[in-house]
Design a protein that fits this description.
Jelly Rolls, single chain, alpha+beta, 3 domains, five-stranded antiparallel β-sheet
Length: 400
C-alpha cells in the first residue's frame, strides 16, 4: 500500500508540474496569418524558368483544421520617383503628372488615389502614359466620375483608396523613365468641377490638393514640396501558374491561361501531410518550414495574401504529452502500458497521414478512448487526453 501511495504521489507531482508550466501558444493551438518571414502579403516574382519558393512556419504538433490563402495574378511593381508635375494655380491643378522609372518590361495598368467631391458628375478623367510629360500617348484610359471614392477629409490619404485605370498593355524598357498624366475633361467653367488627389510630402505626411478644370494653363512645373502622388503601377500576368505545397512535385493548385484575377486556395490537407512526414525537420522551438513553390510559364508577378491558418494540437502532440508522463501515472506503474499507448497513437497518426479518416475515428472511439479510462490512474490526465481526443475527433468528422 505504501508503494502504491508513493507511485500516485510521484504522478501527482508530475501532473502539478505540467499544470504549473507556462502555456506555450505554439503547442496549444492557434492561428497563422503570415509567411515565415513575417509578411502578411507578398509579391512573388516568377521568371518563367525556375520556381519561386516562399515558406509557412507551423509547429510540428499542429493539426491544421482550416487553412486558406489568396493568390492574385497581377501585382504592383517597384518604381523610383523622379518628379511630380502639374499645371498649377494656387493649389488647383488642371493636369497632373508623375515621372517614374520601372524595373519591368510591361505595364498593364496604373492605379491612382483620386477622390471626387460629393456625389456630383464632375466629368471624366483620363490617364495618359507617356515617355515625356508633353509627349504622345503610349496608352490611355478614361473613367467617369462614379468610379472614384468620395473625399471626406485629408485623413483619407493616410490609408488611400486606389482606382485602376486599365490601360492597354504597354511594353517598356527596364530602367527608363516614363510619365503618367491625368487630365480632367470637365466643363470649361473654372473652379467648379473638381476632384482631390493625394501624395507624399517630403516631410513624410500625406498631402492633398484640388484637381479641377481651369480656364487657363500656365504650363508644366515641378512641384518642390511633394515627393510623389499616391499611385501604383500594375504589371505582369503569369501564364498557367501553379502552386506546389511541400515542393514535392505534386501540383496542388493551377490556373489555365493568363492569370489576372484572385482565387482563394484551400491548403489544410496539404499542410497536414507535410507536417506529418517532416517531423525530423523541426527546429529547436518545434517549428517546421513548409515550402510553397510557385511557377509560371512566363515572367509574372503572383501576390499571396489573406493567409488564414487555424490549428489545434494534433495526434503527435498527444503522443508527446504521454511521453512526458512517468510510468507511475499508468495502472500498476506499468511502463509497458505507456509504450502500448504510444503505439496506439502512432497507429492513429499513420491512419491520418494516409487519409484514412474513418479508420482514425474508429481507432479513437473503439480503442484509444477506452484505454485512457482503463490504463491511466490520474483523473486530471484522463480529462486532458479526453479533451485533446475530442478536438481531434471533431476535425476528423469534418474531413468526411
Amino acid at each position: 500500500m505504501k508503494m502504491k501511495l508513493f507511485a500516485i504521489s510521484v504522478c501527482l507531482v508530475m501532473v502539478a508540474a505540467v499544470l504549473a508550466a507556462p502555456v506555450n501558444a505554439q503547442t496549444d493551438g492557434g492561428e497563422i496569418h503570415s509567411l515565415a518571414d513575417g509578411s502578411i502579403e507578398k509579391y512573388i516574382e516568377l521568371d518563367g524558368i525556375e520556381p519561386s519558393t516562399e515558406y509557412l512556419k507551423i509547429h510540428k504538433d499542429a493539426l491544421v483544421t482550416n487553412a486558406s490563402l489568396d493568390l492574385s495574378g497581377e501585382g504592383y511593381i517597384d518604381e523610383s520617383f523622379y518628379a511630380m508635375y502639374g499645371y498649377h494655380n494656387f493649389g488647383y491643378f488642371d493636369a497632373l503628372g508623375q515621372q517614374f522609372t520601372v524595373n519591368t518590361d510591361l505595364i498593364t495598368g496604373i492605379e491612382i488615389a483620386l477622390y471626387r467631391w460629393i456625389d456630383t458628375d464632375y466629368g471624366p478623367v483620363t490617364l495618359h502614359l507617356r515617355e515625356t510629360v508633353d509627349g504622345p500617348d503610349l496608352s490611355s484610359a478614361t473613367l467617369t466620375w462614379e468610379h472614384f471614392p468620395v473625399y471626406y477629409s485629408p485623413g483619407a490619404f493616410y490609408d488611400p483608396d486606389y482606382t485602376l485605370f486599365d490601360i492597354s498593355d504597354v511594353s517598356v524598357t527596364p530602367g527608363n523613365t516614363y510619365v503618367w498624366v491625368l487630365t480632367h475633361d470637365a466643363s470649361p467653367t473654372p473652379y467648379t468641377d473638381y476632384y482631390f488627389i493625394g501624395g507624399h510630402q517630403l516631410n513624410g505626411y500625406p498631402y492633398d490638393s484640388y484637381f479641377m478644370k481651369e480656364s487657363w494653363n500656365p504650363g508644366w512645373y515641378v512641384d518642390d514640396h511633394v515627393n510623389d502622388w499616391y499611385f501604383r503601377i500594375r504589371s505582369y500576368a503569369p501564364t498557367n501558374p501553379t502552386m506546389d505545397v511541400g515542393a514535392d512535385g505534386d501540383v496542388d493548385w493551377t490556373y489555365s491561361g493568363s492569370f489576372q484575377i484572385t482565387e482563394t486556395v484551400i491548403v489544410a490537407d496539404e499542410l497536414n501531410q507535410y507536417i506529418f512526414t517532416h517531423q525530423s525537420e523541426a527546429d529547436a522551438e518545434g517549428n517546421i518550414l513548409v515550402p510553397l513553390e510557385f511557377f509560371s510559364d512566363t515572367v509574372g508577378l503572383m501576390e499571396i495574401s489573406n493567409i488564414n491558418i487555424y490549428w489545434i494540437e494534433g495526434a503527435l502532440g498527444i503522443n508527446e504529452y504521454i511521453q512526458d508522463l512517468p510510468a507511475e501515472c499508468f495502472k500498476n506503474d506499468n511502463e509497458n502500458l505507456k509504450n502500448a499507448f504510444n503505439g496506439k497513437l502512432n497507429d492513429l497518426f499513420n491512419k491520418i497521414e494516409a487519409g484514412d479518416y474513418d479508420g482514425a475515428i474508429d481507432k479513437i472511439e473503439n480503442d484509444i478512448w477506452d484505454k485512457v479510462d482503463k490504463w491511466i490512474d490520474d483523473p486530471d490526465i484522463q480529462q486532458d487526453l479526453f479533451d485533446m481526443l475530442t478536438e481531434l475527433l471533431d476535425w476528423l468528422y469534418d474531413q468526411i
